[in-house]
Amino acid sequence: MAECLFCKMVSGQIKPDTVYEDDDVLAFKDLNPQAPVHVLVIPKKHVATLNDLGEAETALLGKLSLAATRIARESGIAASGYRTVVNCNADAGQSVFHLHLHLLGGRFMRWPPG
User: Fold this and answer.
1) Against a cut of 0.85, is the pTM above it?
2) Which pLDDT band holds residue 18 (cuts at 50, 70, 90)?
3) Which of 10, 15, 24, 46 is deepest in the core (most CB within 10 A)?
4) What is the CATH number of domain 5-105?
């Protein structure tokens, strides 16, 4: 996806502040953090929204979650708690249409979130 901001990060055209990377996942610090730890965890494969996942991407969602767990441990927030959020489409707050998981922690999270 030539115009996708996150695809440009995956391809190396844009250099994010990377905190984790493997063959399928890229994770980087959010430019507008909403918590002391705010990392975006994305698949390297372009999937626009959660609605666009199919059976072929079942494992991909698990890999995003496992990467978030690893980052939470490495960031020192796993024991105290953290939140993961996936927004789907504009009304939910999705502004970049490349599936991404927000990992938020390092402070108390209120409920309900929005």
Assistant:
1) yes
2) very high
3) 10
4) 3.30.428.10
DSSP the chain: -TT-HHHHHHHTSS---EEEE-SSEEEEE-SS-SSSEEEEEEESS---SGGG--GGGHHHHHHHHHHHHHHHHHHT-TTT-EEEE---SGGGT--SSS--EEEEESSPPPSS--
Long-range contacts of 68-75 (CB under 8 A, 24+ apart): 68/27, 68/39, 68/41, 68/101, 68/103, 70/20, 71/19, 71/20, 71/27, 71/39, 71/41, 71/103, 72/37, 72/103, 72/105, 74/19, 74/20, 75/19, 75/37, 75/39, 75/105, 75/106
Residue-wise pLDDT tens digits, 44-73: 999 999 999 999 999 999 999 999 999 999
